[in-house]
Amino acid sequence: MDSEKALELNITVNQAGGGTVTATMHDSSVEERLQLLNARGATRTGDTWRLETDDMGAHADAAQYVIKMVSDILTPKETPGEARQATFERDGNTCRLCGANFDAPAIKVSRDRVNTRVLDHVYPQRDAKPIHRPHETCNLVTVCGGCDDVFLQGDKFRIVTDRLGYRPPPTDRQLIACIQKRGIIRSDWALDKLNASREEPDRLEHEYIAERLGALAQIELMKPLPDVAKNEGFEVYAVNISHRAIVFLDHKAVDRHPRLPQGFEFVNSLNGEDYVSMNEQKRGRGSSTPA
After folding, report:
1. Most buried of 95, 171, 177, 214 (most Cβ within 10 A)?
2. d(CA 107, CA 119)
3. Would residue 288 count as lying in a domain?
4. Which of 18, 50, 74 is the last residue of a domain?
5. Average pLDDT of 98-104?
6. Which pTM value belongs to this model?
7. Which residues of 183-213 are buried (b: 16+ CB within 10 A; e: fewer)?
8. Are 37 and 149 within one domain?
9. How far is it, in rounded angstroms, from Cα 153 to Cα 134?
10. For residue 85, how many other CB atoms are within 10 A of its CB?
């Protein structure tokens, strides 16, 4: 194995617009990020994933995502020490999703990633502009490595609409797709994502997104984190990982997480119930208020 390599990614495009994406892993730390290719229909042989498609354009975002996520793992960006410590203290040194207490003896002596303290950037660094102040405490929360892998890296869980208590219209479904990608979200980030697929005069306002997140909190799918962004122009919400509407994809990250709710379900075990697709993030239209 070439010790200088972590990942080899080869992309070929044919004259018809189809092609092949081949990813070969040389560092096991990037394996979890490559699972996205499995969800796109790739096959794995040893440490190599191969995805063949008739429409390479439909998978360009997947290749970009893999490159970015692997790069973030291998070259993490440092957050100022004072902001890190202030965030850990504000959060009581606990995971804001599953409640893991990093001061507990069993966790303090564990070296497993699921028990590792992680600092999450709520407005992702890769998207943040200087105005979003990515390294300030209003954009930082404490999570465990298990929740980071399952709820914050995208494509690990889904939300079953039949269990929400109302029929979400397209815009709400689009917002839920954003939540499935980032289990802790800022209202301004969600607004940017939803508006990315809209043109004037169809663009949404921040007040509307804040209202919709508040409505999802009323049915306990989301929980507000008011202490994270006090006196800011945005709000921070975290998904309620115990909500009955949440089901999981069959990923190693899910199997490793010891603090997921008992008796959770996988998507492939559902009996015809409707759940939100990640593709809906760019398709939402309209508005409504949950009953």
Report:
1. 95
2. 16
3. no
4. 74
5. 96
6. 0.73
7. bbbbbbbbbbbbbeeeeeeeebebeebbebb
8. no
9. 17
10. 11
Strand 157-159 and strand 117-121: the pairing is unpaired
Q: How far apart (Å, rounded) are the C-alpha atoms in residues 115 and 100?
A: 8
Angle, nearest 10°, between helix axes 31-39 and 60-74?
170
Per-residue model confidence as pLDDT tens digits over 27-40: 776 776 676 677 67
Q: Mean pLDDT for the chain?
A: 87
Instruction: Kindly state whether residue 205 falls inside one of the protein's structural domains.
Output: yes
Query: What value does the CA radius of gyration of the chain take, rounded to a whole number of Å?
Result: 19
Q: Which helix (H) or strand (E) holds 161?
A: none
pLDDT at residue 134 in the model: 87
- Within a domain: residue 181? yes
| One domain, residues 227 and 128 | yes
What separation, in Å, do the N-terminal and C-terminal C-alpha atoms of the chain show?
A: 58
Phi-psi region of 171 (alpha: psi -120 to 50; beta: other; left: phi over 0): alpha
CB burial readout 249-270, b (16+ within 10 A) else e: bebebbebbeebeeebeeeeee
The residues that bridge with 11 in the sheet, in sequence order, are 21
Q: Are residues 210 and 92 in the same domain?
A: yes
Q: Which domain holds residue 210?
A: 81-282
Distance CA 32, CA 43 (A): 15
109 and 50 housed in the same domain: no
Q: Residue 46 and residue 25: Cα distance in Å, rounded? A: 9
Q: Which residues contact 54 (CB under 8 A, 6 or more apart)?
A: 16, 17, 18
- CA separation for the pair 114, 111 (Å, rounded): 8
**Cβ 220 vs Cβ 206: under 8 Å:** no
| Cα 81 → chain centroid | 25
Same domain, 268 and 159: yes
pLDDT tens digits along 149-166:
999 987 899 999 999 999
- For the chain, the residue count is 291
Residue 74 is predicted with a pLDDT of 59
Asked if residue 290 is part of any domain, the answer here is no
In angstroms, rounded to a whole number, what is the distance separating the alpha carbons of residues 63 and 57?
A: 10
